[in-house]
Amino acid sequence: MEVHANNNTNGVDPVRFSRTAPRRPAEPTQDQTSFEGVNAVNRALEATPASRSEAVDRATGLIGDLTYPPRETIQRLSHLLALKLQE
Questions:
Q1: Cis omega (within 30 of 0) for bond into 69
Q2: Can you tell me whether residue 71 is helix, strand or coil?
């Protein structure tokens, strides 16, 4: 019986090494990231008031109102909570 290798018929090729010049580290580049959007958001936040006086006035009025929230709203919320407790 005779065995023939299918992948290499001419023997083994010699190993070849190639020498290349060592790489120099890349030159540091100047940061080119743009933060214009961040600056615009910061300016908008500075221009926004900490609270809206009309919303504070409305909430202050509702705290003193005994009929707020309406009875129907309280009943609907209590039914929803009861359904969640049963699950």
A1: yes
A2: helix
For residue 10, what pLDDT is reported?
61
How does DSSP classify residue 35?
Answer: -
- 5-62, pLDDT tens digit by residue? 565 556 666 777 777 777 777 776 666 677 788 889 999 999 988 888 999 999 999 9
Answer whether residue 62 is part of any domain: yes
Does the residue 4 lie in any domain?
Answer: no
The model's pTM: 0.36
Q: What is the rounded CA–CA span in Å between residue 10 and residue 50?
A: 83
Structural domain contains residue 73: yes
Q: Does residue 81 fall inside a structural domain?
A: yes
At residue 35's C-alpha, the angle toward residues 34 and 41, to 5°, is 145
Question: How many structural domains does the chain have?
Answer: 1
